[in-house]
Specification:
It comes from Roseisalinus antarcticus. With 194 residues, the chain is an all-alpha fold. The protein has seven helices and no strands.
């Protein structure tokens, strides 16, 4: 065989074998005596006989650059799973990105399943419930001195035994002062939901 086969020429110029056969039938290819294709001469003849307006051009695919945050997220996901991650700026391979994507999908499914089973709760709902609980507890402490002051005053009067009477109003005021001071110190504590 002196030249190229239809399949070989099709691979060389990026056409299908059927397109090469049509070009051959239309006389736009140069053939050797044995029927094989003279590649260089055929390229030249095709360029001369092909209408430029009818040539399909490959769509210009301008690939957008991948943000560094996305690349680092892929690296972090791979590291979490004990898989070697590329160094920052070292370029992530398609296989690494695909692996990270599959890992993230599996993590998302696991979280969704845990939520369905009731093992996970919504963060906003948990924070709302914690706030309500803390507010209810604070309210209970604020009203506590009024409820127990008279009882504590009578117990202290009895415990002193020397006729000194502890007034309920004074006891309530002292208790309220100390309870409010304690509540103010507890207000600085902020729960951290990690």
């Amino acid at each position: 065989m002196q030249g190229m086969s239809e399949r070989g020429y099709a691979a060389r110029v990026g056409l299908s074998r059927g397109a090469v056969q049509k070009a051959k039938e239309a006389g736009r290819l140069v053939l050797h005596a044995d029927g094989s294709i003279d590649a260089d001469a055929s390229d030249k003849r095709r360029a001369e006989t092909t209408d430029p307006s009818k040539v399909r051009k490959a769509p210009a695919q301008k690939m957008k650059p991948v943000p560094e945050a996305a690349v680092s997220a892929v690296g972090e996901t791979l590291k979490e799973q004990g898989i070697a991650a590329p160094p920052v700026g070292g370029g992530t391979t398609f296989l690494q990105a695909k692996t990270a994507n599959e890992v993230m999908k599996a993590q998302e499914r696991r979280l969704r399943l845990q939520k369905l089973k009731g093992e996970l709760v919504d963060r906003a709902r948990a924070e709302t419930l914690m706030f309500r609980l803390a507010r209810d507890e604070r309210d209970a402490w604020v009203t506590w001195p009024a409820r127990v002051a008279a009882l504590m005053a009578s117990e202290l009067t009895a415990a002193l035994g020397d006729g000194t009477e502890v007034e309920a109003a004074v006891m309530q005021k002292v208790l309220e002062t100390h309870v409010r001071a304690q509540l103010d110190s507890l207000a600085d504590i902020r729960p951290k939901l990690a």
